[in-house]
Design brief:
With 109 residues, this protein is mostly helical. It has a single domain, classed as lambda repressor-like DNA-binding domains (434 Repressor (Amino-terminal Domain), Orthogonal Bundle), CATH 1.10.260.40. The chain has helices at 2-12, 17-24, 28-36, 43-53, 57-61, 74-83, 88-107. Helix 2 packs across helix 3 (28-36).
Length: 109
């Protein structure tokens, strides 16, 4: 299921394995291995895949029928689409900022 869903979502965007690999900062051989079912991405890479491909992680693993991020609440959809074309280094900055904000929020409770 995971292998098929990764490949299907990638093909729907007319991306090569190399293009997807570049977007999530892995080798093309990783994408090929995941699509062939030889191995599975770790949770961090699964999240990056879902963001890049514009689908939910649950959809990729076959755990939910929600496929498109458009099925998610509006603000999340907008952010996900904006982030889809960012470079891995830019995604890392966003992750750092969001993590800091969450920690700050938790401390203020």
């Amino acid at each position: 299921m995971l292998a098929e869903n990764i490949k299907r979502a990638r093909n729907e965007r007319n991306w090569t394995q190399a293009v997807l690999a570049e977007k999530i900062c892995v080798n093309r051989t990783n994408i090929a291995s995941w699509e062939l079912g030889r191995c599975q991405p770790n949770s961090e890479k699964l999240l990056l895949l879902s963001q890049a491909l514009g689908v939910t992680a649950d959809y990729l693993v076959g755990a939910a029928t929600i496929r498109e991020t458009a099925d998610l609440p509006h603000p999340i959809t907008i952010l996900s689409r904006k982030m889809a074309d960012l470079q891995p280094s830019q995604l890392a900055v966003i992750d750092t900022v969001v993590t800091a904000m969450v920690l700050q929020n938790e401390r203020s409770k």
